[in-house]
Protein backbone atom coordinates (compact mmCIF):
# COMPACT_ATOMS: atom_id res chain seq x y z
CA UNK A 1 0.00 0.00 0.00
CA UNK A 2 1.32 3.43 -0.93
CA UNK A 3 1.45 5.80 1.97
CA UNK A 4 1.17 9.55 2.02
CA UNK A 5 4.97 10.07 1.96
CA UNK A 6 5.33 8.14 -1.30
CA UNK A 7 2.45 9.98 -2.95
CA UNK A 8 3.87 13.34 -1.87
CA UNK A 9 7.31 12.27 -3.10
CA UNK A 10 5.82 11.54 -6.51
CA UNK A 11 4.23 14.98 -6.55
CA UNK A 12 7.58 16.46 -5.52
CA UNK A 13 9.27 14.80 -8.52
CA UNK A 14 6.59 16.19 -10.84
CA UNK A 15 7.14 19.65 -9.33
CA UNK A 16 10.92 19.30 -9.77
CA UNK A 17 10.53 18.38 -13.42
CA UNK A 18 8.09 21.26 -13.94
CA UNK A 19 10.49 23.67 -12.21
CA UNK A 20 13.10 22.84 -14.85
CA UNK A 21 10.89 24.62 -17.37
CA UNK A 22 10.63 27.83 -15.35
CA UNK A 23 12.39 30.97 -16.58
CA UNK A 24 16.01 31.21 -15.48
CA UNK A 25 15.29 34.04 -13.03
CA UNK A 26 13.00 31.72 -11.05
CA UNK A 27 15.30 28.67 -10.95
CA UNK A 28 17.02 29.61 -7.69
CA UNK A 29 13.70 30.23 -5.93
CA UNK A 30 12.22 27.02 -7.26
CA UNK A 31 15.27 25.02 -6.28
CA UNK A 32 15.26 26.51 -2.78
CA UNK A 33 11.61 25.59 -2.31
CA UNK A 34 12.15 22.08 -3.63
CA UNK A 35 15.07 21.49 -1.28
CA UNK A 36 13.21 23.00 1.69
CA UNK A 37 10.27 20.65 1.10
CA UNK A 38 12.31 17.66 -0.09
CA UNK A 39 14.59 17.21 2.91
CA UNK A 40 11.81 16.68 5.49
CA UNK A 41 9.88 14.63 2.94
CA UNK A 42 12.90 12.38 2.47
CA UNK A 43 13.12 11.90 6.23
CA UNK A 44 9.41 11.05 6.38
CA UNK A 45 9.74 8.48 3.58
CA UNK A 46 12.71 6.89 5.34
CA UNK A 47 10.95 6.84 8.71
CA UNK A 48 7.72 5.34 7.36
CA UNK A 49 9.04 2.94 4.70
CA UNK A 50 12.60 2.12 5.74
CA UNK A 51 16.10 2.96 4.56
CA UNK A 52 15.85 1.16 1.20
CA UNK A 53 12.95 3.26 -0.04
CA UNK A 54 14.56 6.29 1.59
CA UNK A 55 17.71 5.75 -0.48
CA UNK A 56 15.63 5.23 -3.62
CA UNK A 57 13.82 8.50 -2.91
CA UNK A 58 17.18 10.23 -2.41
CA UNK A 59 18.49 8.92 -5.73
CA UNK A 60 15.30 9.89 -7.54
CA UNK A 61 15.42 13.36 -6.01
CA UNK A 62 19.05 13.84 -6.98
CA UNK A 63 18.29 12.67 -10.51
CA UNK A 64 15.39 15.13 -10.71
CA UNK A 65 17.70 17.96 -9.67
CA UNK A 66 20.57 16.78 -11.86
CA UNK A 67 22.09 20.12 -12.83
CA UNK A 68 22.56 21.46 -9.29
CA UNK A 69 23.95 18.09 -8.17
CA UNK A 70 26.14 17.84 -11.27
CA UNK A 71 27.56 21.33 -10.77
CA UNK A 72 28.28 20.53 -7.12
CA UNK A 73 30.17 17.35 -8.07
CA UNK A 74 32.16 19.22 -10.70
CA UNK A 75 33.16 21.80 -8.09
CA UNK A 76 34.28 19.02 -5.75
CA UNK A 77 36.50 17.49 -8.43
CA UNK A 78 38.16 20.79 -9.34
CA UNK A 79 41.54 21.45 -7.88
CA UNK A 80 41.88 24.57 -5.79
CA UNK A 81 43.78 27.30 -7.63
CA UNK A 82 47.48 27.30 -6.99
CA UNK A 83 48.78 30.60 -5.76
CA UNK A 84 51.78 31.94 -7.60
CA UNK A 85 54.17 33.75 -5.34
SSE layout and pairings?
Layout lengths: L3 H16 L4 H26 L1 H14 L1 H12 L8
Concise synopsis of the structure shown:
This protein has helices at 4-19, 24-49, 51-64, 66-77. The chain has 85 residues and is an all-alpha fold. α1 (4-19) packs antiparallel against α2.
Walkthrough of the structure:
The structure is a single chain. The chain has 85 residues and is mainly α. It has one domain (10-76). It has 4 helices and no strands. The chain starts with a helix and ends in an 8-residue tail after the last helix. This is DUF2484 family protein. Pfam families: DUF2484 (PF10658).
Principal-axes shape call: globular
Rg, rounded, reads 16 Å
Low-confidence stretches: none
Count of DSSP-assigned helices: 4
Task: Describe the largest sheet.
Answer: none
Tally of individual domains:
1
**How many individual β-strands?**
0
* End-to-end separation: 64 Å
Order of helices and strands: HHHH
Strand content: under 5%
Q: Structural class, judged by helices and strands?
A: mainly alpha
Helix content: over 70%
What value does the average pLDDT take? 82
Keywords:
about 80 residues, mainly alpha, 4 helices
Amino acid sequence: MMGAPLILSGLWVVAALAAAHLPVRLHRTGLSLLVAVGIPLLGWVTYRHGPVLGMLALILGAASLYWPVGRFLIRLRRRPPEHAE
